[in-house]
C-alpha cells in the first residue's frame, strides 16, 4: 500500500516536473537567451517550511547554451508538437489520482480501484518517460557538438549541486527533538 502511494506520488511529481520543464523550454525557445535575459520575476511565496522552489530543468539549461534563432525555432516546434500528448498523459494521471482520493480505504471496492489506478499509472508513467526521452533526443539533435558537450557539463553541475543540497539536508538535525 505504501509503495503504491510512493509510485503514485513519484509519478505525479515527475509529470509536474516534466510539464514545468516543457514550459520553461518553450519560454527559452521563444527568445529568452543569455544575451537578452528576461526581467527578474518577483520571488514566489515561501513554501510551508520557508523554502522557495526553483525548478531548473532542461529548459533552463538550454537557455544557457546561446541557441541560434533557427535552433530556438526547432526546439519550440519540438515542444509544441509534444505538448498535446504530454498534456493528455498528465490529465489521465490526475484523473487516476482523483479517483483514488475519492475512494475511502474502508470502501469494499478500494482494493480494485487501487489495483486499477496502479496498473494504469504504471503504463502512463512508462509512456510519459518514453515521450519525454523522445523529445530530449530530438532537442539533442538540434544542438551542435559543442553545445551537446556544454549541456552535459551543465547537467553534471546541476546534479552535483542537487546531491550536495540533499546531503546538507540529511546532516541537519530535525527541529522536533
Structure description:
The two termini are 29 Å apart. Helix content is 72%, strand content 0%. Helix 1 runs antiparallel to helix 3, helix 1 (2-29) runs parallel beside helix 4 and helix 3 (69-102) runs antiparallel to helix 4. It has helices spanning 2-29, 58-62, 69-102, 110-142, 145-171. The chain is flat, with a radius of gyration of 19 Å. With 177 residues, it is mostly helical. Residues 15-44 have low confidence and may be disordered.
Number of helices in the DSSP assignment: 5
Report the β-strand fraction as a percent range: under 5%
Rg (C-alpha, Å): 19 Å
The average pLDDT is: 75
- The chain-level structural class is mainly alpha
Indicate the multimeric state: single chain
- State the helical fraction: over 70%
Number of strands: 0
Q: Which regions have little confidence, pLDDT < 50, spanning 5+ residues?
A: 15-44
H and E string: HHHHH
Largest sheet: none
Distance between the termini: 29 Å
Shape: flat
Quick structural gist:
Helices cover about 70% and strands about 0% of the residues. It contains five helices and no strands.
